[in-house]
Amino acid sequence: MAQKKGSLKLRQSLIGYSFIAPNFLGFAIFILFPVIFTIILSVMNWDGFNAMTFAGFANFRAIFRDRVFKSAFWLTLLYVVFTVALTLLASLALACVLNRKIKGRDVFRSAIFFPYVASMIAIGAVWKQLFESNYGPINMALRAIGISNPPGWFASTDWAIWGVIVVAIWKFMGYYMLIYLAGLQDIPVQLYEAATLDGATGWQKFRKITLPMLTPSTFFVFMMLTINSFKSFDLIYALTMGGPGTSTTLLANYIYNQTFVYWDYGKSAAASIILFIIVLGVTIVQFRGEKKFTDYL
Amino acid sequence: MMIEKRSPVKTVLLYIVLALLTVITLLPLLWMVSASFKLSSEVFSFPIKWIPETWHWENYVKIWQKINLATYTMNSFKLSIIITLIQLLTSSFAAYGFSKCRFPGRNVLFLAYVATIAIPWQVYMLPQYVMMQKMHLIDTHISIILLQSFTAFGVFLLRQFYITIPDELLEAARIDGLSEYGTFARIVLPLTKPAMATLTIMSFVTVWNDYMGPMIYFNSDRLKTIQLGIQLFVGQYSAEYGLIMATSVMAIIPVLVVFLAFQRFFVEGIASSGLKG
Amino acid sequence: MKKFIVLSLVALMAISSVFAGGPKEKAADNGVTTLTFAVWDYTQNAYLSKAIEAFEAANPDVKIEVQDSPAADYITKLNTQLNGGSDVDLFLIKEADKTKTFYDRGQLADLTPYVEAAGVDMSAYNGTDANFTFDGKLYAMPLRTDQYVLFYNKDLFDAAGVPYPDNDMTWAEFEELAGKLTQGEGATKKYGAYFHSWNACVQNWGVQDGKHSIMSGDYEFFKPYYEMVLRMQEAGSCMSFAQIQASGLSYTDVFSQGLAAMLPMGSWLIQTMASRTVSGETSVNWGVAVVPHAEDVPNGYTVGATTPICINNASAKKDAAWRFVEFISGPEGAQIMAENGQVPALVGEGYLETYAAAPGMPEGVMDGLYATHISPDRPAMDKVTQIDQMLLAEHQLILLGEQTVDEGIANMNRNYAEIMAE
Question: What is the ipTM of this complex?
Answer without folding.
Answer: 0.86
